[in-house]
Amino acid sequence: MNITPYLEHLLKKNNLTTFEMMEIMRACMAGDLSDSQLAAFLTLMRMKGETVEELTAAAQVMMEMAHTIDLGDNLVDIVGTGGDGKNTFNVSTVSSIVASAAGARVAKHGNRSVSSKSGSTDLLMKAGITLEIDDSDLQRCMQQYQLCFLYAPHFHKAMQEARKVRQELGIRTFFNLLGPLVNPARPKSQVVGVFDKKWQKPLLDVLVNLGCVHALVVCSRDGLDEISIAAPTDVLEYHKGEYSEWTIVPGQYHCAHNRLDEITVNSAEESMSHMYSVLNGEVSPSRDIILLNTAAALYCADVVGSFQEGIYAAVNAIDSGAALERLQQLQVFSQNL
């Protein structure tokens, strides 16, 4: 495919139409772009700044070409866009386990690390969770445990065409923004963390365009792409046709720890250590950040009626041993496949 006209268009900081974005995304997903063409396209899109229309079109193409799965209704996902450069342990993954133990039905969409030290998949595999399983087993896992992990390459095989280029570029691209938008189970409730406040409203608009009925897009003022223990986190919410904006201040929820350097990791092994620390009920910065992010998931899933109630439910899920038991159930489930 000749994408030179598109590149010239982007060089002039002109936006792409829905048709143009869909056309080039289909070429990308089909492997019709060379590595250099794709790298140029991703870089120029980043320099121009992606629009709601472009991101919606790109997500629609990815879902059009994806293998989707029916896991029932009332699903929630909690995920960050990545690209924040903070190298924290896998907060959204551990929060998903705790949220499911507290009553949410969580369809966690994830992948191996591209821009961080340890991706969701890296941690789960290290913990003995089998990810490449067929749809019937995933559906059984959801039915039994209210949680399953959806390994992105299994559902978005075409996305692998871009993986090598993304890794070699080593910068945030719009694929970081797309990841949270293309969950193959199509959850109607989503908590999405972004690394930059400028992306809050655009991503919320894209989620609404794609059919979300309850969505929280969160951005910490310290640049974390999830709810932080070290700074207030701004929340944009869409629920039942209405938009609202509010702020989570960690100190208001009895978070005694506020140092991000205590929750950073260099490997999946270190992430797993943080996970077990939390699930075993140890008081730590890791526990605090999991409580905050789990509360958001429970509120977004309408399991609880407020963020504060979500904190109480998350504390109970951990301190009762239910969250650790949920992880162990998933490990046994994987062993018996």
From TrEMBL:
<dbReference type="InterPro" id="IPR005940">
    <property type="entry name" value="Anthranilate_Pribosyl_Tfrase"/>
</dbReference>
<dbReference type="InterPro" id="IPR000312">
    <property type="entry name" value="Glycosyl_Trfase_fam3"/>
</dbReference>
<feature type="binding site">
    <location>
        <position position="80"/>
    </location>
    <ligand>
        <name>5-phospho-alpha-D-ribose 1-diphosphate</name>
    </ligand>
</feature>
<dbReference type="Pfam" id="PF00591">
    <property type="entry name" value="Glycos_transf_3"/>
</dbReference>
<feature type="binding site">
    <location>
        <position position="225"/>
    </location>
    <ligand>
        <name>Mg(2+) 2</name>
    </ligand>
</feature>
<feature type="binding site">
    <location>
        <begin position="83"/>
        <end position="84"/>
    </location>
    <ligand>
        <name>5-phospho-alpha-D-ribose 1-diphosphate</name>
    </ligand>
</feature>
<feature type="domain" description="Glycosyl transferase family 3">
    <location>
        <begin position="73"/>
        <end position="324"/>
    </location>
</feature>
<dbReference type="InterPro" id="IPR036320">
    <property type="entry name" value="Glycosyl_Trfase_fam3_N_dom_sf"/>
</dbReference>
<dbReference type="InterPro" id="IPR017459">
    <property type="entry name" value="Glycosyl_Trfase_fam3_N_dom"/>
</dbReference>
<feature type="binding site">
    <location>
        <position position="111"/>
    </location>
    <ligand>
        <name>anthranilate 1</name>
    </ligand>
</feature>
<feature type="binding site">
    <location>
        <position position="80"/>
    </location>
    <ligand>
        <name>anthranilate 1</name>
    </ligand>
</feature>
<feature type="binding site">
    <location>
        <position position="120"/>
    </location>
    <ligand>
        <name>5-phospho-alpha-D-ribose 1-diphosphate</name>
    </ligand>
</feature>
<feature type="binding site">
    <location>
        <begin position="108"/>
        <end position="116"/>
    </location>
    <ligand>
        <name>5-phospho-alpha-D-ribose 1-diphosphate</name>
    </ligand>
</feature>
<dbReference type="GO" id="GO:0004048">
    <property type="term" value="F:anthranilate phosphoribosyltransferase activity"/>
</dbReference>
<feature type="binding site">
    <location>
        <position position="226"/>
    </location>
    <ligand>
        <name>Mg(2+) 1</name>
    </ligand>
</feature>
<feature type="binding site">
    <location>
        <begin position="90"/>
        <end position="93"/>
    </location>
    <ligand>
        <name>5-phospho-alpha-D-ribose 1-diphosphate</name>
    </ligand>
</feature>
<keyword id="KW-0057">Aromatic amino acid biosynthesis</keyword>
<dbReference type="Pfam" id="PF02885">
    <property type="entry name" value="Glycos_trans_3N"/>
</dbReference>
<keyword id="KW-0822">Tryptophan biosynthesis</keyword>
<keyword id="KW-0328">Glycosyltransferase</keyword>
<dbReference type="InterPro" id="IPR035902">
    <property type="entry name" value="Nuc_phospho_transferase"/>
</dbReference>
<comment type="similarity">
    <text>In the C-terminal section; belongs to the anthranilate phosphoribosyltransferase family.</text>
</comment>
<feature type="domain" description="Glycosyl transferase family 3 N-terminal">
    <location>
        <begin position="5"/>
        <end position="65"/>
    </location>
</feature>
<comment type="pathway">
    <text>Amino-acid biosynthesis; L-tryptophan biosynthesis; L-tryptophan from chorismate: step 2/5.</text>
</comment>
<keyword id="KW-0460">Magnesium</keyword>
<feature type="binding site">
    <location>
        <position position="88"/>
    </location>
    <ligand>
        <name>5-phospho-alpha-D-ribose 1-diphosphate</name>
    </ligand>
</feature>
<feature type="binding site">
    <location>
        <position position="226"/>
    </location>
    <ligand>
        <name>Mg(2+) 2</name>
    </ligand>
</feature>
<feature type="binding site">
    <location>
        <position position="92"/>
    </location>
    <ligand>
        <name>Mg(2+) 1</name>
    </ligand>
</feature>
<keyword id="KW-0479">Metal-binding</keyword>
<feature type="binding site">
    <location>
        <position position="166"/>
    </location>
    <ligand>
        <name>anthranilate 2</name>
    </ligand>
</feature>
<dbReference type="GO" id="GO:0000287">
    <property type="term" value="F:magnesium ion binding"/>
</dbReference>
<dbReference type="GO" id="GO:0000162">
    <property type="term" value="P:L-tryptophan biosynthetic process"/>
</dbReference>
<comment type="similarity">
    <text>Belongs to the anthranilate phosphoribosyltransferase family.</text>
</comment>
<comment type="subunit">
    <text>Homodimer.</text>
</comment>
<protein>
    <recommendedName>
        <fullName>Anthranilate phosphoribosyltransferase</fullName>
        <ecNumber>2.4.2.18</ecNumber>
    </recommendedName>
</protein>
<comment type="function">
    <text>Catalyzes the transfer of the phosphoribosyl group of 5-phosphorylribose-1-pyrophosphate (PRPP) to anthranilate to yield N-(5'-phosphoribosyl)-anthranilate (PRA).</text>
</comment>
<keyword id="KW-0028">Amino-acid biosynthesis</keyword>
<keyword id="KW-0808">Transferase</keyword>
<dbReference type="GO" id="GO:0005829">
    <property type="term" value="C:cytosol"/>
</dbReference>
